[in-house]
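Reopening: structure tokens for the magnesium ion complex, inputs below.
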Amino acid sequence: MSVGLLLVAWELYANYSGIKPTILPAPSRVFEQATLNREALIDNAVPTIRATLIGFACSLGAAFALSMLVDFFQPLRRALFPVFIVSQTLPLVAIAPLVVLWFGFGLTPKIMLVALVTFFPMLVALVQGYEATEVEIGQMLRAMGAGRWRVFVLARLPSALPYFFAGLRISITYAVVGAIFAEYAGAAKGLGIYMLNAKNNFRPDLVLAAVGVSAALTLILFGLTALLQRLAMPWERIGRQPAGKGPGR
Amino acid sequence: MSRLELRHVRKAFGGLDVLADISLSVGAGEFVSILGPSGAGKSTLFQLLTGAEHGEGEMLFDGMPLDDHGRHFAFMPQRDALMPWRRILDNTTLGLEVQGVRRQVARARVVPLLAEFGLAGFERHFPAQLSGGMRQRAALLRTVVQERDMLLLDEPFGALDALTRAAMQRWLEQMWRHHRWTALLITHDVREAVFLSDRIYVLSARPARVLREITVPLPRPRDPTGAAAQQAGALEAEILDILLNPQPSKGHDHD
Ligand SMILES: Nc1ncnc2c1ncn2[C@@H]1O[C@H](COP(=O)(O)OP(=O)(O)OP(=O)(O)O)[C@@H](O)[C@H]1O
Ligand SMILES: [Mg+2]
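Re-run output (same inputs, fresh job):
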């Protein structure tokens, strides 16, 4: 709705203010050009999607393994977290060209950058999630005779799920941005390099078309995580409904 | 013959003395309550028994020192500690699952008890879909199916409204008469302690020591309306007086 209003205002401004389409094209023109160039756009979106998904999967795996390690050996946390925090403050603008310089124009540097920007949020989400486990549940499990591993699997892991999905939703948007940034710094194909080329050819309409594609991509991934959460945490959804459906007593 | 016996148990957290001197015993098939003000250290005592914390003094079970290996207790924590992500059936079988009992077998043990615990028809529900009283009964079911030597109940009805609590107390008294569990109950509800217990240990405020050991002479089944109700009322008044004026400790030394 608000997006629609914005587009209408933009369309009117671009058509009636006398601004040149090479500066600010109307959305209708962007859409038209996007349709005309859809093959090129799709062709360039595929590597971006691939880099996003592979990079994100790598970072998820690493974050999960490390979160467990940190949960079992608390001292590690104090030792490692400063390093990770520093890794988050590195400016992407400076790092992206360096990584490309070191690892070439292929998939590797993109995966690395996506992993770099998403790893820490996921790690923090997981570690915080484990800590959110109700103290009483842990105590009760130990009194039942459960060891640390059982407590982790039965209580700490499920307790972390809401945090995990909150982290997932944030990181997935970072992931797309990270991939595009990496391509911007140098790539054979990808939405990032497509935007760069379009800009250099004075085609803001094509830049915006690529932006539209990346926005759609982000939205789809975001929606997928929300869907995944609904499937993985049925009690969240059902729990909010009153218990009226159950048989009476 | 007492099953659980504590002799001069003490516990401090850092510099904070929580348990000053606790001696008590619980006999086989006996329902014993620990009654004390909030913050006295009642839950801490259960932490010592379940091995979550370590203190000083002697803790014996059937005459043998308690260690971390002998699992004598089924413990119900102060909050119900139901897992929101597990359905009621899977919450109640949790203890058996941890013991390594196969799921089918565990369920077969729990299912016949669901009706008695007022949970029939709700086994597929999540805890968030249950009322407070039902959650407590589910937590209690999870505790008793473990078939340990003794129940440790930490304020099982503390979070309930007065009406539900009264109903739950009657229900538990009735359940206890059927099953004759050996049970140690923590509460700060004087009426609850008198209504449910064979004996009551009254604790002081922190650092906790035993102010008085009281045997409840009321006949069972306990009837909150009958002839014994007056006797119960007098006992409640006496205990309240001990709790509110703890200094002139008349009945000290009960070893
Ligand atoms: N792990 C701990 N570390 C430090 N202090 C603790 C710890 N556990 C409990 N305490 C302290 O011990 C005291 C007694 O706590 P405890 O939970 O045993 O009280 P309680 O009698 O169960 O109270 P309530 O009736 O309100 O549940 C409190 O002052 C609390 O702050
Ligand atoms: Mg307590």
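The radius of gyration of chain B is 18 Å. Residues 2-72+149-248 of chain B form a domain with the Rossmann fold fold (CATH 3.40.50.300). Marking as resolved unless the reporter disagrees.
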